[in-house]
Design a protein that fits this description.
There is one protein chain. By secondary structure, this protein is mostly helical. It has one domain: Orthogonal Bundle (Non-ribosomal Peptide Synthetase Peptidyl Carrier Protein, Chain A). It is built from 4 helices and no strands. The radius of gyration is 11 Å and the shape is globular. The relative contact order is 0.19.
Length: 79
């Protein structure tokens, strides 16, 4: 799982290098990521982790923090 975290952090930091993803817990709720960021991040996550995040997964609680995104990735990898 640590490897997944490192890969996810690379994706996030490439998208928005100015954000402190390690400590932020309201990326969506505080509007730190916009819809274009999310589209880019989801596309990269799908490719990197060989999963398919669908529209039903695009909920703020799945993208507000690194841990939430990792939990979503893990859930989709197990399906």
């Amino acid at each position: 799982m640590e490897e997944n975290r490192e890969e996810l952090m690379e994706i996030l930091e490439d998208t928005r290098p100015e954000l402190d993803f390690e400590n932020e817990t309201a990326l969506i709720d505080d509007q730190l990521l916009d819809s274009f960021d999310i589209i880019s991040i989801v596309s990269e996550i799908n490719d990197t982790f060989d999963i398919s995040i669908n529209v039903n997964d695009l909920l703020p609680e799945n993208f507000n923090s690194v841990d939430a995104i990792l939990a979503l990735i893990k859930k989709l990898q197990e399906e």
